[in-house]
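S1.2 Input.
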Amino acid sequence: MVRKTFTFENEVGEKVTVDNPIFHYTSIDALCGIVNKSGLHFRATRYDSMNDSEEYRWVYDSLKARISKEHAISVDEVNELYKKFPYVISFSTENGQEMWERYGNHGKGVCLVLDKKKLIAASERNFGKEWDVVMPVMYANEDNKMEKLAEAVVQYHNFGYGTDNQSADFEDDIYCSAFVKDEAKWGVETELRYARIRENNLFFKNGDTSSSEDKHDVQYYLRGGKRIPYLAVNLPLEVFGGVIVGSEMDDLEFEKIKEMMIDNGFGEERVMKSDVKFK
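S1.3 Output.
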C-alpha cells in the first residue's frame, strides 16, 4: 500500500510530516555522505555493479535481438550504435520488514524519507543537461517482459519524455529497459527508480567505426576490493523529509545520528526509530 504521508515524531511530541513519501535504505556511513547542509549527495551506480546480476540486460538482450531483426543489422551493431549505460538510485514506496532485511542491515541501518513529487521536480530540472528520469519500475516475468516494456514506454511518454524522432522509436525502448525487472525476485520492492543515462560515443577514422562508453563525470569507489563506477547526483534539501533509524540500532548510534542531523541544520524531530521489529 502506497502511503500518502509519513509523519516523524520525537520523544517530546514534535512532528514533521512528509507528503508523497518514498524510502531509501542504506548504512550509517552512507547516510553521513548523503546528507549535509548543501543538499543530498547520492551515488547513482552503474547497472552492472548493482545487486541484480541481470539488471537492465534481462530486457535489453531480448530487445536488441528484435532490433537486429527489424533493422537488418547485427547484434554487435545494435550494441555499438544504441546501447545505454544506466546509472541508478533506488527508492521504494515500501517501508516494511522485507526492505529492512534486504537493504537496512536487518534493522541496524537507516532509511531516508524523501518527498516523491519534489524528487521528480528535481529530476526534471536536471533532464535537459543530464537526461535524468524518475519512474516506477514495471515488474514482469519471462513471458510478458516485452509487453511490460511497452507499458513502460507509454508511461515514459506520458511523463513527457521520449524522442521526437519517430524513425528511432526503439531509442525509448532501450532507455526503458532500465525500468523493467523480474517480478518473482524483485516485485516486493515496489521500486521508484532515479536513472541517469550515459551512451556510447561513436568514432570514425579511416572509414572505420568504433565506440566507447561516455564516461564524463564518472567516479569510482571501492567495494570489496572492486572499483564501482558511479555518477554523483546532487538533490536540493527540499526533497528531504528525515531519517528512520532501524529498530535494532543501539542507542549510542541513534544519538550520533541525531547529532549529525543537528550539525547539518536539521532538528532532531526529523529522526525517529522504526517500528518494524525483528525477532
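S1.4 Remarks. The longest strand covers residues 191-205.
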